Amino acid sequence: MTTAAEDRVLVLLRHAKAERGGSENDHERELSDRGRKDAAAAGHWLREHGIGLDQVICSTSIRTQQTAEALWEAGCPEAEVHYDRRIYLAAPDGLLSVVREADPEAAVVMVVGHAPGIPALASMLADGQGSLDAHRLMSEGYPTCGIAVLRYSGHWADLSESVAVLDRFHIARG
Question: In sequence order, which ranges of the chain are alpha helices (DSSP H)?
């Protein structure tokens, strides 16, 4: 059983670069060639840094699903994936509600989503706490395939503003 003092890791991944929108439905946009390479690089980075995932909560958009699939293809160990329409273009408060519903037994949860929600959630949760280098990098922008790794002690259901620590921020490029 999980205790309130148990450390958790939250990985916030903005999807990889998608094809230009044009007149097609935004929800159906696929990854570009560069996006596929960047998503693979994200999977390599997660594996190289020993970040194993217990649960992935992914937007239902095609580009986020393809980003998650590319992580596994690149060698990042697969995790239980839940697709949640609420993540699609969600505000940070909406994303926080989704994370609070994460599996209570999961120690490491990743959310694959979109800007501006994912970057805003990372800032809201860490609020300047953690690695100065990671905060500096994140403040310079949270582009596609940006990955924030946050640490938190407590139950997912209790996650709130300013209670996490930003350990790392990385922009994956292939």
Answer: 33-48, 62-73, 92-100, 117-126, 132-139
CA dihedral 57, 128, 134, 10 (to 10 degrees): -20
State which H helix or E strand residue 7 sits in: strand 7-14
Per-residue pLDDT of 61-106, as tens digits, reads: 999 999 999 999 998 878 889 999 999 999 999 999 999 999 999 9
Percentages helix, strand, coil for the chain (3-state, rounded to 5) are 35, 25, 40
Q: What's the pTM?
A: 0.94
- Class of residue 120 by CB neighbours under 10 A (exposed 0-12, middle 13-18, buried 19+): middle
